[in-house]
Design the sequence.
C-alpha cells in the first residue's frame, strides 16, 4: 500500500503555486521548480508523483503551465510508444516538464530533441491519437474540484 496523503499534501502546494503564478506573484521558472520539488517530495513517504501533480495534470501543460481550454490537445508523455520511452529513458525530469501533459505548442520543442529516423514528432502525436480515447489527449479545461477524492484544506486566497 502506498501513501496517498503525502500526494494530497504536495498537491495542495502545487495548487497554491499555480495560483501565485496565475496572479503574477511568481515567475514560471519559480513555479516550475516548486512543482517539480513537490513531485519528488512524495518520496519522503511511499507516495505517488502523479498524485502530487494531479491539480495540473489533466488541464495544464507541464512545460509552459498554461491552462489548456477544455477539448484542446493535451498529450500525455505516458502515452508515447513504449520503446520510444524506454530507449530514450523518457521521464518528466529528462524532458524538463513538471507534469505528464504537453500542450500542442510545447509538444514539438520538448520532444523533437529525442526524435530520430524512427520517430518524428508527428508520428508520436499520431501514435497517441490512434491508440487512445480522445479524452486521454485533450484537456479537461479546469482543475479537479477535489484533492484526490478529499476536500481542499483551504482556498488559495487564505493568506492574502
Ligand atoms: Zn505548453
Sequence:
Amino acid at each position: 500500500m502506498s501513501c496517498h496523503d503525502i500526494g494530497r499534501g504536495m498537491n495542495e502546494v502545487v495548487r497554491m503555486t499555480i495560483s501565485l503564478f496565475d496572479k503574477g506573484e511568481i515567475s514560471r521558472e519559480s513555479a516550475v521548480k516548486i512543482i517539480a520539488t513537490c513531485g519528488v517530495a512524495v518520496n519522503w513517504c511511499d507516495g505517488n508523483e502523479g498524485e502530487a501533480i494531479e491539480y495540473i495534470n489533466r488541464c495544464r501543460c507541464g512545460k509552459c503551465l498554461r491552462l489548456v481550454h477544455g477539448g484542446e490537445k493535451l498529450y500525455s508523455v505516458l502515452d508515447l510508444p513504449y520503446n520510444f520511452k524506454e530507449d530514450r529513458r523518457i521521464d518528466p525530469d529528462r524532458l524538463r516538464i513538471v507534469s505528464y501533459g504537453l500542450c500542442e505548442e510545447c509538444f514539438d520543442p520538448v520532444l523533437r530533441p529525442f526524435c530520430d529516423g524512427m520517430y518524428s514528432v508527428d508520428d508520436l502525436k499520431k501514435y497517441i491519437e490512434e491508440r487512445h480515447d480522445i479524452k486521454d489527449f485533450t484537456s479537461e479545461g479546469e482543475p479537479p474540484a477535489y484533492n484526490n477524492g478529499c476536500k481542499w484544506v483551504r482556498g488559495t486566497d487564505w493568506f492574502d
